[in-house]
Amino acid sequence: KVEVRIRVNDRQGQQITAASADVPAELFPAYLLEAPPVSQGQVNHQASSEKSSGGISKDGLVVELTTTRGEGRPFYRNGEHIKFVIRLNRAAYVYLFDLNPKGNAVLLYPVDGSGRLARGGQCGSMPRPDVPIILPEDGCSYDLVVTEPYGTDTVWALAAESPLDFPGDLTGDWSLASDLVGRLRNQGLSAKGGYAEAEVEVVTGP
After folding, report:
1. Residues 6+ away with beta carbon under 8 Å from 79
2. What is the set of domains in the chain, with CATH numbers?
3. pTM above 0.90, yes or no
4. 164, 95 in Cβ contact below 8 A?
5. What is the pLDDT of residues 63-74, one digit of tens each?
6. Nearest to 15 by CA among 72, 86, 77
């Protein structure tokens, strides 16, 4: 099958919406699906690009993160709801954080009604492999609604086959994005089983 993706941008170049669909490969001429020859220089360039993209995958675990408006840097206006789509290639624990421009980290998933780390409820179940989940889920007690201050936030997704250990309330150094990222990454890479990361930037405005 061939995945076809469409993005719709406004006149300022901001992404408004996006969609994707799988099309049977049999509907395309064979020559369109043939891989072009790749030189050694192209291989080296491609490898360096993948390494610099920020995605990490250990022991074959892969996590994909996007918004319901697709990839890129989607733009959301004041009052609009933001939803994220996560997909794993095998079962794992999932964590989602907002890393804001001020350098602070906020846990988005899995949380309880008070925003604390929570497990075992509808908002925090382990996703099934290759089945996309939309966050916040129907079972979550919160919505992500755009309010001031506006800007560009990085949303960071982690997947780990061993649960990660961090406080239910992100206070002190744990609330600092740089510290949290470093600590959880070290945990994931040193623990048993697979570990993976993905991130997406979200732009907000009035």
Report:
1. 145, 146, 147
2. 1-53 (no CATH), 56-205 (2.60.40.3880)
3. no
4. yes
5. 999 999 887 789
6. 72
